[in-house]
UniProtKB/TrEMBL annotation, chain A:
InterPro entries for this protein: P-loop_NTPase
Listed name of the protein: Protein ImuA
Amino acid sequence: MTGPGQVRPVALSEVFATTVTDAAAMGFVLARLPKSAAPVLWVQDRLSAKEAGQPYPPGMGAERQLIWVHVSHSSDALWAMEEGLRCHALGAVVGEIWGAPKALSFTATKRLAMRAEAAGVSCWLIRRAAPPEVSAARDRWRITSLPSAPHPHDAQSPGVARWQAELFKSRTKKPGTWRVGHDRAADRIHILAPGRDGAVAAADGAHRKRAL
Amino acid sequence: MERWQRQMERTGNAPSEDLPTALVADGPHGQVIHATNRAARLAGIATGARVVDMRAVCPELRVEYADLAGDAQALKRLSLWARRWCPWTVVDGADGLILETTGSDHLMGGEAAMLTEMEARLSTLGLSARLAVAPTWGAAWALARFGPVRAICTEESCAADLHALPVAALRLEAETVLLLRRLGLKTIGQLAEVPRLSLTRRFARSALEMNPPMRLDQAMGRLAEPVASVEARAPILAQARLPEPIQDPTAYVPQLCEEVCAQLEHQGLGCRQLHLVVYRTDGEVRRLEVATAAPSREPVHLCRLFQDRLERLDPGFGFDLITLEARRVEPIATVQTQLGGGGEGGVPLSHLIDRLTARLGPRAVKRPQLRESHLPERAAVWAAEQGAGATAVQARPIRLLHPPEEVRVLYAVPEGPPAQFVWRRQTHRVVRYAGPERIAPEWWRDRPGTRLRDYFRIEDQAGGRYWLYREGLHEDGRGGDPRWFVHGCFA
């Protein structure tokens, strides 16, 4: 198991977007979805779709099958995600929940996590405008956009996307902060350099590998 | 006979028309004559007689086997072909067609003209036909076989037209006809004059084919005999009649689902649409409708589709009859997915979509359909079915705002990207940009005056990557100053 580049975490993971309009969290989730033809159930509540936009398939890679569920309440979104986790034919279940609704309690996340583990389907929660309250998610990430890599041919234009991925709570891995780049053509994440986080920066690669 | 003649002609070894020929079928006491040609009829060959007897009458008779199954097939095909005249046709016995022409005769210029046209059309197929129009099935049968050529009979003239026909015209069995002849009742008119009471007593226990009064009633239209078309399928329906009006149908739905599924399984079908109707005691009817993504006949699954919706049913003062009907049915084949016989773990994908659709509504569950369009919002639309189309060549954002949100911009150069823009009360300074990518309006779909769009991929000082566009150009004659919108976000 490696850090952010790990392919298939079969559990519930939470991703927090630092700002509402930042699509880095979604890009991070997309890059880590299993690379299979199995359809992805994408559940959005109304505010997420209104404030942060809808997923746009031409930009997400057209070969990925998508089932988009658009509901008005977060409780319905959680119900739809739980239903999706009963279906083993899905590749992944992604939910976008706005804020910190009552329905998304510790119990609800625990249910999601256990269902995801039982079904072997990875489940992702994208949270916006939400404080990181107590949750049963196995991994909790905070993703922020960084200025992109220089474009190889055009100094003016934005290049490969770069994010700061902060794993601030995890059950199986050691938390840390990484600066990662997203290679869109190969659809993979690579670690650029250790961030300014002291603990991670002090440890060398061997130590981190063992701890993770 | 005519079908056989045409087949023989096609193979090139058709006998001469003048040679008496007969088709035979196996009877209980040896072969009997099934059909004859004109020469054989003139030679005195009777249909239904034994072949050995007829050989004695006409030694040069040529005998061939009749293809009864083939005849039945051909008649069925002909009944479908006869839908050119009316929409409701059905095969009648081994040698007849019934066409329900009510309301369609005027299209051919009246009933007489219609019969003439039918005869002409059938004769081009090489078939001779005896036609009659009558208000009932029985009367039409009788007039076509025993009545005048192209008989037309109305409601009023029905009794008079049938009066002189023999009793065999009532679609009775030979023994019953013989019995009636022995009783001295040779025509339908004579039969109708016999007091009804004694006739009914005589034939009270007999089946329909041996029951002259009932056959007479059918011919006169006193006993209904509907024409059931070949395509009309009996509804797949289950009912629960309740002794007392109740408010909550939940307890009855599983049983109804099981009954419907048993019927579906019997016919090898699966339902796509289920209607649950409750008949309320106050004279109102309330219905619920669920649909499935793939044909299904699993009672547990179908029952679960109703689970969350039964509470939305308005029961009023209660209801005492519940019906469940499979409206749209499709054939499904039973497929074994694993060698061991067990299914895959978990719920099938179609069941998941059904469950989501049933609870959240059909508009909440959608799949992307990619279309060939340059306009981003038209290139991918959300629909009920997944559809593949052209994929974008240019860089496209992963999120799209719907609708695009207008921003205030500060220009650096009029035709270039903005230096800075204010979106949702936050100022974003443009650090890097790519573009413009010009997307012209689709003139064949858009209203006149729609402005073109220049898209820019923009990165702000914090690393946020957005997709902005300028709608229109300066002084393009389509409105005032161009406006700027945010349309999406890149990862």
